[in-house]
Amino acid sequence: MSKLFFCILYLVISEFIYAAEQFHINVSAGLSADNIHDTSFSVKTILDFPYGKLSGVFTTPLTKPAANGNISLSINPFPWCTLKTGSLSLSGILQRLINPKITSSLHPVSARSVTRAIPEIKNRTSQLRPIGAAIFLKPQLFLRKVLLSPFITLYGDENTMFASSAGIEYTADKISGSTSVALSTYLLEQTDFTNWFSPSDTPLPVYLPRTRYFNAALETEITGKYAGIYFGTGAVPSLFGGFIPWFRNETFFSSRYLHISSAIFWVPHTFITSDGTTISKRLEISCTPLIQIPFNQWDTIFKTGAALFINISSHTGKFLTGCDISTKHIHIRCTAGWTNWQFPFKPDSVTSIPIKASADFSFFSFYYTVSSAAELFLAGSLHTQQKYTFSAGFRPIGTESIPLYIPQTRLSTNISCRDGNMYSWDLSGRCSWKIHNRYTTIRVYVEYTYKYTS
Question: How many whole angstroms separate alpha carbon 298 and alpha carbon 324?
Answer without folding.
Answer: 15
